[in-house]
């Protein structure tokens, strides 16, 4: 449920890439029923400060919740954490669905429209017929001519990403049932 490329892509929106391994270990600890920052720290060997920081990131992303309790003897506050599986599945699913739609729309556009790029430096300009005609088919950056864009590579890359994503999401869905 957490070892999936789609989950990785989703989680690096919440934490920096260097925290990916740690946040996955923390989620796993929560799934295993470990409830406090101290216990997670002991179980995972991740620095206590980092555990706390990442727990709050999960909380901000609504995939973990906490309860604050006052110890009647010491008067100290303790926090017990819980993983919100339902919300997690929803967030990952939304992330996947949105990205899939973006890629399918992009593919659709490439298949149904002719694009033009700068003949000297494709980075300068890329636009559909209407946009390109506004510049009379000359690059707005360097004034060299625009030429028809060969979308073959970009289309096959998009198709591959869409296929892989669908396969990985299927795996994710299967893993939820376990
Ligand atoms: Zn140019």
Automatic annotation (TrEMBL):
It comes from the Archaea. Residues 3-89 form the HTH TFE/IIEalpha-type domain. Keywords: DNA-binding, Transcription, Transcription regulation. Pfam families: TFIIE_alpha. Gene3D superfamilies: Winged helix-like DNA-binding domain superfamily/Winged helix DNA-binding domain. One of its GO terms (molecular function) is DNA binding. InterPro entries: TF_E_archaea, TFIIE/TFIIEa_HTH, TFIIE_asu, TFIIEa/SarR/Rpc3_HTH_dom, WH-like_DNA-bd_sf, WH_DNA-bd_sf. The winged helix domain is involved in binding to DNA in the preinitiation complex. Belongs to the TFE family. Monomer. Interaction with RNA polymerase subunits RpoF and RpoE is necessary for Tfe stimulatory transcription activity. Able to interact with Tbp and RNA polymerase in the absence of DNA promoter. Interacts both with the preinitiation and elongation complexes. Transcription factor that plays a role in the activation of archaeal genes transcribed by RNA polymerase. Facilitates transcription initiation by enhancing TATA-box recognition by TATA-box-binding protein (Tbp), and transcription factor B (Tfb) and RNA polymerase recruitment. Not absolutely required for transcription in vitro, but particularly important in cases where Tbp or Tfb function is not optimal. It dynamically alters the nucleic acid-binding properties of RNA polymerases by stabilizing the initiation complex and destabilizing elongation complexes. This is Transcription factor E. It comes from Methanobrevibacter millerae. The lineage of its organism: Archaea, Methanobacteriati, Methanobacteriota, Methanomada group, Methanobacteria. The gene is tfe.
């Amino acid at each position: 449920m957490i070892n999936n490329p789609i989950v990785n892509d989703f989680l690096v929106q919440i934490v920096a890439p260097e925290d990916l391994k740690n946040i996955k270990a923390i989620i796993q600890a929560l799934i295993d029923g470990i409830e406090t920052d101290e216990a997670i720290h002991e179980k995972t060997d991740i620095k206590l400060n980092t555990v706390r920081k990442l727990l709050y990131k999960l909380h901000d992303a609504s995939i973990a919740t906490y309860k604050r309790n006052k110890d009647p003897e010491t008067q100290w506050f303790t926090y017990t954490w819980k993983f919100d599986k339902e919300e997690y599945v929803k967030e990952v699913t939304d992330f996947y669905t949105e990205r899939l739609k973006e890629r399918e729309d992009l593919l659709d556009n490439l298949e149904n429209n002719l694009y033009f790029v700068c003949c000297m430096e494709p980075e300068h300009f890329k636009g559909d017929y209407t946009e390109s005609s506004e510049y009379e088919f000359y690059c707005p950056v360097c004034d060299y001519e625009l030429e028809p864009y060969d979308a073959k590579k970009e289309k096959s890359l998009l198709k591959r990403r869409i296929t892989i994503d669908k396969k990985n999401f299927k795996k994710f869905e299967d893993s939820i049932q376990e």
